[in-house]
Structures are given as structure tokens and as C-alpha cells.
Design goal:
7 helices; alpha/beta; Molybdenum Cofactor Biosythetic Enzyme, Chain A
């Protein structure tokens, strides 16, 4: 079983001025990952300290995967990548590269994404766009690689190469 946290980063969502649609959409989409269980969901404002605190709390709780949605663009308040980098110990750039590459097939705005992915302890953290559609499209891009990566983070000693 993979324990998943979904963190929505939105000033208006945190103030209750906008319904969080991305978090629930991701919770539904992550069901495509066999053995996935969403055990934590939260909405925080675009405040680096609050994003970092939520990420650190969930890493300490031993979640396998944290998906963030929102705060990855060019707006001055978009600080999710910076908060994520402050928490992770190792980047996993291939995930963000794959998401951007696949998203470029849909929109040229994909090249404006500053999303990052990385590892904190044995937790994988992945930044996703703030729109429900973009978040789910990006998640589905990396979904095939997640079981192997999450198993490796758990210490799976099996060989990675195929015979």
C-alpha cells in the first residue's frame, strides 16, 4: 500500500473563497496507482513557510508520495517549487521533465511550469499544476514509473535492469 498526501496550494482556496477542485481530482486519479491510498489532504495558502511545514509534517509521518497542486507558475506568489526544494534532499528531474514534455503536446504554456520533483527521506514529492485538468494529465504522465520508484524508496533490493 502506498500512503499518499495531496497538498493544494491556493490563497483563495485556503481562505474558503474558491472550492478546491484539483485536490479531489487528484485523489480520484491516483486510484489508477495500484495500492494507493490517500491518507492526507490539505489546502494551504501560497506561503512558503506553510507549504514547507505541511511537506515536512507529511514526510515525518512517513507518507510514500506527496502530490502538490498549484503555485508552480510565474506569479510572484507561486513559491511551491522553492518550498519543495527546501524540503527535498535529492531532486528527481526526470519526472518534471517528462511532465513538461508531455504537456507541451497540449499547450505551449507547459514550458512556463517551474514544477520540481524530489526525494525527502523515503518520500517522493511531486509538484503538479493548479488546474484539475493539468494536474491529472501530469500525474497520468508519471504514473507508470511511480510504483518502481516508490518501491525503490522503500528499499526494494531487486535489480532495475530487465534480463
Amino acid at each position: 500500500m502506498y500512503r499518499i498526501g495531496i497538498l493544494t496550494v491556493s490563497d483563495r482556496g485556503a481562505r474558503g473563497e474558491r472550492e478546491d477542485r484539483s485536490g479531489p481530482a487528484l485523489a480520484e486519479a491516483i486510484r489508477e496507482l495500484p495500492g494507493a491510498e490517500v491518507v492526507a489532504q490539505a489546502v494551504v495558502p501560497d506561503e512558503r513557510s506553510e507549504i514547507e511545514a505541511a511537506l515536512r509534517r507529511w514526510v515525518a509521518e512517513g507518507l510514500d508520495l506527496i502530490l502538490t497542486t498549484g503555485g508552480t507558475g510565474f506569479s510572484p506568489r507561486d513559491v511551491t517549487p522553492e518550498a519543495t526544494r527546501a524540503v527535498i534532499e535529492r531532486e528527481a528531474p526526470g519526472l518534471a521533465e517528462a511532465m513538461r514534455a508531455e504537456s507541451l503536446r497540449v499547450t505551449p504554456h507547459a514550458m512556463l511550469s517551474r514544477a520540481v520533483a524530489g526525494i525527502a527521506g523515503s518520500t517522493l514529492i511531486v509538484n503538479l499544476p493548479g488546474s484539475p485538468k493539468g494536474a491529472c494529465e501530469n500525474l497520468r504522465t508519471i504514473l507508470p514509473a511511480l510504483p518502481h520508484g516508490l518501491d525503490k524508496l522503500r528499499g526494494d533490493p531487486s535489480e532495475c535492469a530487465r534480463p
